[in-house]
Amino acid sequence: MAEPNLELVIARMEGRALVILRGPVTRASMVECPAGGEWLGIRLRMGVFLPGLSTGSLCDHQSVALPYAGPERFWLGGRAWEIPTLDDAESLVDRLAAARVIVRDDIVDRALDGLQAGVTLRSVQRRFLHATGISKASFQQIERARYAAYLLREGAAILDVVDQAGYFDQSHLNRALRRLIGPTPSGLLRSDDQLSFLYKTAPPHWI
C-alpha cells in the first residue's frame, strides 16, 4: 500500500541484520517479507530528509541497503551506528538528528498545517517536494486513502467512509483505494489479510 514517509527498515534474517533506507511509495504494491524474518520500521516525520540525498530517488521501492559496518552496526552519514531494537529506535533518530545526518524542513510542517510559510507558494511546493520526494497533493491523497482503509477495516459502512474520508462518491473511493491501497472497499470489508503499516487512526485535519 502507498506510504508517504521516509523510513529506516531493519530486517533480520538468518542471524544477520540489514538496514534499508526506504522512500515514499505512491501506489498500491506488495512488500515481500520472507518467513522466519523479523522487521522493524522506523517511520520518520514528514519533512525529515538526508542532506545530499534526493528523497525522490528512493520513491516506489528504489530503496537503498545501507553499508554493513560490522556485527549489529551500519554505516550512514560518514560513521557507523548501532542497529536499533524497538526499545532504542527513538534514541537512534535523536542521535541522527543531533549529528545532522537527518534534518527537517519546517516549511513542510507549516504547509501540512495550512499555515502561512512566509515564502511564495512556488517555494513551498519546491521545498516540500525536495524534502519528501512527493507533492503535497500526493501526500494528501495517500493519507486520505489510508484513513479510508482504516475505517473499512474497523467495519465502517462504505457510504459512511465516503463521507468521513471526504470522497465525492463511492466511485471516487473505489478508484483511490485500488490505486493507493490495492483492494476495493468491499474487498477490505471482507478480507482478514494484513495491510502493512496501516496505522492511521484519526482523520487528517484537512478533510
Description:
With 207 residues, this protein is α+β, with helices and mostly antiparallel strands. The protein folds into 2 domains: 7-102, no CATH class; 139-190, Arc Repressor Mutant, subunit A (Orthogonal Bundle). It is 34% helix and 16% strand. It has helices at residues 89-98, 106-112, 121-132, 136-153, 158-164, 170-180, 185-190; strands at residues 7-13, 16-22, 38-43, 48-49, 64-65, 73-76, 79-82, 103-104. The strands form 3 sheets. It has a 4-stranded antiparallel β-sheet with strand order 3-1-2-5, with no helix packed on it. A hairpin with a 2-residue loop joins strand 6 (73-76) and strand 7 (79-82). Helix 4 packs across helix 6 (170-180). The protein starts with 6 loop residues before the first strand and ends in a 17-residue tail after the last helix. The relative contact order is 0.15.
In short:
The protein is 34% helix and 16% strand.
Rg, Cα atoms, Å: 18 Å
- Class of secondary structure makeup: alpha+beta
Number of helices: 7
> How much of the residues is beta strand, in percent?
15-25%
> Which sequence of strands runs across the widest sheet?
3-1-2-5
What is the share of helical residues?
A: 25-40%
Extended strand count: 8
Number of domains: 2
How would you characterize the largest beta sheet?
Answer: 4 strands, antiparallel
Regions with little confidence, pLDDT below 50 for 5+ residues: none
Give the topology string: H per helix, E per strand: EEEEEEEHEHHHHHH
Averaging pLDDT over every residue, what do you get?
A: 90
Give the overall shape, derived from the CA principal axes: globular
How far apart are the termini? 20 Å
